[in-house]
Amino acid sequence: MTAIELDGVTKRFEDVTAVSDLSLTVEEGEVFGFLGPNGAGKSTTINVLLDFVRPTEGSVTVLGHDAREESVAVRERTGVLPEGFGVYDRLTGRAHVEFAIDSKEVDADPDDVLERVGLADAADRKAGGYSKGMRQRLALAMALVGDPDLLVLDEPSSGLDPAGAKEMREIVLSEAERGTTVFFSSHILEQVEAVCDRVGILRGGELVAVDSIEGLREATDADATLRVSVGDPVADEVLAEIRDLAGVRSVDRDGDDALRVACDSDAKTAVVTELEERGITVTDFTTEEASLEDLFLAYTEDDSDVAVDDSDGAENDRSEAAESERSDAADAEEAGGTDDPTEAGTADEEDGGDDADSEASAEDTEVAR
Question: For bias kind Acidic residues, which ranges apply (predicted)?
Answer without folding.
Answer: 303-314, 330-369
